[in-house]
Design brief:
0% strand, mainly alpha, 21 helices
Amino acid sequence: MAQEENIKKNSIISLLSLFFHSGYAAVLGLIANLILTIVLSPKIYGIYVLTLAIIPFLNFFSDIGLAAALVQKKDVSDDDIRTTFTIQQLLVITVLAIAFVLTPFIRDFYDLPSEATHLYWAVLFAFFLSSLKTIPSIKLEKSIQFQKIVLVQIVESTIFYVTVSILALMGFGLQTFTIAVIIRSLTGTLLMYYLSFWFPQIGISRISLKTLLSFGVPFQTNVFLALIKDDLILFYLGKVVGLEGLAYIGWAKRWAESPIRIIMDNVSRILFPIFAKIQTEKERISQLIEKVLRYQTLILAPTFVGMALLLDEAVELIPKYSKWEPAIPLFYIIILSAFFSSYSTPFTNLFNAVGKVKTTFKFMLYWTVMSWVSIPLFTHFFGLYGFPISLVLLSLTFIVIVPIARRIVDFKFVPQIIPPIVSSLIMGVAVYFTSYFGVSWLHVGVSIVTGIITYTAALYFLFKINVVTEIKSFLKYE
């Protein structure tokens, strides 16, 4: 019982810490992104988007699922940790050597300037330092002490966003990102070892490796499919629609999916270790899933509606931001995809945590194949709009995922999501009728206040849901 209460306490503290970091990073990121997209040209921003797409590939080839296997495994030995670290570092060194040799090919293929090469090398250096943080981070994750991981992320975010903002304003151009990436990675690695010190140990245990690979390989296969689906497609788009077109897609995708990154990414990080700990307790899993569905919809539905109504006005009001107007229609389509896809995330975590990695693999295989069929096809016919249209079609897979998840554990889906969605639509109508204030920051402020009042009132009077009570219930975690 005491252990169960400790899990609950650590879970809430960890989740709130992650949300705090996300909110903090979101504000910093908003300010920095505004500065970058005002000062820098779409082409330079496109190069940055393209370079960042390399990181997931480096991460994949530096790990064969051993890190995830450590988190999923209930009892972890020193041999497990030593084996994971040793294998990972061997892979990291190999991947870095290959990536460095490929520098001329990548530079020539996309016709990149010399500054882009320096950024690419900085990302490789940061990748090496990041690999050193894996074991200390897993030790914190196993004990569900995400607040310490969050502290490292807060420091990293602060250093990165402040640095890029200052350097961009000083006219450093693409070198802005190069310097910021190096400073961030050095600081983050040192702080992680200070908070969760682990002296690196070399050694490989065949027994540990075999056990970890039994979960790690299927898990990493899903990661590989996600890479092909989400990140490799960016390299294709960068060549087909150009770096400026990729910048518009990246801009729209970043803003449309920002609530998902803040909400669902953090929930996922908590859900996986929690599901793994209670994987045999069907009733508790059911209650947890219903809470996640309820709270994520309470937050995401009104957020997406509000963003859809106000983004074009914000672009018009922000100085020198009109250059991003071509990306606004893309944003409207991607935001729909983001909302639908949020209902797949909790269940893929459930499948992985209870050992049904093959189920996740089947969906990832479907998403990957359909991405590479639909995106090139739609891009050929609809240009820039092909990518977001494909995302919407793929996001509808949640309709199939939910019934499959209910075979594992029984839960109620529709009753959790209908009240927030209906209330958000009512809110949207109310906000729309505030347009007589004209295009101004006053109108934006009035719209936000009107939206909050209308949304909470609709929840209360139509569905008897008290937002304050919901917040208290969430914090109590009963």
